[in-house]
Amino acid sequence: MRSGLSLTELGFGAAQLGNLARVTTDDEAAGAVAAAYDRGIRYFDTAPHYGLGLSERRLGAALAAYPRDDYVLSTKAGRLIVPNEEYDGRARDDQGFDVPADLRRRFDLSRDGIRRSIDESLERLGLDRIDIAYLHDPDDYGPEAHAEAIPALIELRDEGVVRAVGAGMNQSAMPTEFVLRHDVDLIMLAGRYTLLEQGALEDLLPAASERGVAIVAAGVYNSGLLSRPRPPADARYDYAQAPAEVIARANEIADVCESFGVTLPEAALAFPLRHPSVVSVVVGMRTADQVEQAVERVGAEVPDELWSTLAERGLLRDA
């Protein structure tokens, strides 16, 4: 990467440390980070959004045991975590995290809002610096993102507060604009360049290649659809119930994978890393066992013939 940072091919996604979908205990969170470090993972990603700051606090506490120069940490900006004046003492967060709703998120893409977000992340993390700062999900705030938020992140990079900047999103169109219009270092792309769909080949990946911008692939299981050898009938896709035709396509891909002795999740992790602009694949990990599973999957041997066969059958667009 042009920033001088080096990311491990497998990155630790810390959304689960914020109690994504269900409670993760403090011991599970600490054990997952320790297992990841023991297995050579040196890239860790979090965000204020994850558990209203809980993920950042847990990740920072766990990483405090290790030399700061030995790992790369990314977090995100764009949502401030503020007191919820309407909290009744019982309500839980309504955005997918099993935490009390005593706090709430407030989008703020102003220069001051971005700087405040980074300062507050540093405080929650308990660390002296952030390596990568992504603008998080600015889908509905395009003008503000271009006019203030991305320039504010670049300003923080120029001041040495962060080392690299970019955006983390579930679409490829707006990140492509960031790459073409701003001096960003990398993009975290969730779900749009995976074994199941390759829409980013139309816009983001060519732009990133041309500008020397690195891509971090996230959401490579497409909300869990590709996380098992066979997708269940109630599989989720893009954070909702997967349509029948999408499940059928995933099963067709699984058929080909099995014919080469490869599991669907192994192929899902291997595929994005084939593109020369993709420097890391980030996977959510809740426990030490999930870390071990991810490490084994990313280390699996996947023959080139698998990709060509999928392409011949119209199931894949390869880079």
Folded structure, characterized:
By secondary structure, the chain is of the alpha/beta class. It has a domain at 10-191 and 280-311: TIM Barrel. It contains ten helices and twelve strands. The protein has helices at 26-38, 54-63, 111-125, 142-158, 173-181, 204-211, 244-259, 264-270, 288-298, 304-312, and strands at residues 10-13, 43-45, 72-77, 79-83, 103-107, 130-136, 162-169, 186-190, 214-218, 236-237, 240-241, 278-284. The strands form three sheets. An eight-stranded parallel beta barrel has the order 1-2-3-6-7-8-9-12, surrounded by five helices. It has a two-stranded antiparallel ribbon with strand order 4-5. The longest helix has 17 residues, at 142-158. It is globular and about 55 Å long. The mean pLDDT is 97.
